User: What shape does this take?
Amino acid sequence: MLTAAAGAAAALSPAVPAGARPADPGAAGDRAAGSVGTRIDKLYEQAEAATERYNAAKERAARLQRQVEYAQENAARKQERVNRLRNALASVAGAQYRSGGIDPSIALMLTEDPDGYLDKASTLDRIGSRQEEKLRQLRGAERALRQQRAEAGAKLRLLEHERAERKRQKQAVLKKLDAARELTGELSPAERARRERASRAGGRSVAALPGGTEEASSQRAAAAVAAARSAVGRPYVWGATGPGSFDCSGLTQWAYGRAGVAIPRTSQEQRSAGRQVPMSQARPGDLVVYRDDASHVGMYVGGGQVVHAPHPGAPVRYDRADMMPVSSVTRP
Assistant: This one.
């Protein structure tokens, strides 16, 4: 009877291949959401790298703009000098023309005061020598003016190139962010909420991070930490340097600026903005730079944490210092 019952149950049950498990719709959904989430994270990473390239192009363009203005001002001053020299030479030439071209020996024979004439002739000779010097000065000033104009023109062409590069990087950032927003729309409300809650560290406990001390390396570093902490909750906006919104390197530059310390604009430049130390020796105020391309930066604030501006849609917040591969730790 048991054998017959077992046979009947086997006949009524759907066939399942050996070693196979019934499909789990929930697990498949999680895998799909995870795949989309990974793609979103990758797009944000690419957008961040493009943002730092945009920031660098913007900084180069600003420096070139100042250099162009300086070169143009120098060219204007040199032009004024050329004009003065030309006017002075033109006045002398006009006076000589109006005085007539009498041969000096004939003038000496006709004059009633030969001694006085010779004195005048000596003076005129000195005037002629001075005019020759002015002519040499004019030629030198004209050469300097041409060089200054050429320099200004070259810098202006570089400036136009940097403006075009900045435009390209802006388009790259916007393209990545648009794609990330579209993918986010594919997630369920629950998955979007989960992503919003989760940090880049995956929600792991901060207390588990070894190393690091709680004492800032200097008073200015402590002031920078206080500024960074005060920015927690403010929105991420790519290309922003505060005080209302930030991107990653904009936040760290602003925080140190509040402490009276000037550091470079981009995360790549900030990596070299001081002495590098091991992560195990990180102190509050140190800059933690992430990824091989140094495309992200945060500020170590103690307790195994950094304050950073993560990505669009995520405000300035605390995260684990080891949330991503660390490229370097720099102490300004």
